[in-house]
Amino acid sequence: MRMSRLAVAGYLLLVFFSGALLGAFGYRLYTVSTVSANKLHDSAEFRRHVLNEYRDRLQLSADQVQRLNAIFDDMRTRYHDAHEHTKQLIKAEQSDAIRGILNPNQRAEYEKMREERARHQTQPAKPAPPGM
Description:
By secondary structure, the protein is mainly α. 77% of the residues lie in helices and 0% in strands. The chain has helices at 5-31, 43-58, 62-101, 104-122. It starts with a helix and ends in a 10-residue tail after the last helix.
């Protein structure tokens, strides 16, 4: 069965365009620049970037920049404290839930375990034995 010249030309064009499309796609994948997730992840670098943007766009005076720094420091401390407070609430809820499933003898032992763990966490770490 012979193909007409028009069919052969159509198939050749199809192969040519599919190759060009595949080549363009491959080139795009090969040359795409990588994205760095930690570009402004460093908190000091991010803060410097924000301060510079505020200073330049809002035309802040030196006193205003100093006060803005103080505001950022205060907010960071408050945010960190709020985070720690939330963690403590979750730990307390967990302890209460555990106490709720224990009988009186188990609760006494559980409290001893918690005290031991608290003492262990406040003690400095022991150095590793030699040869390890």
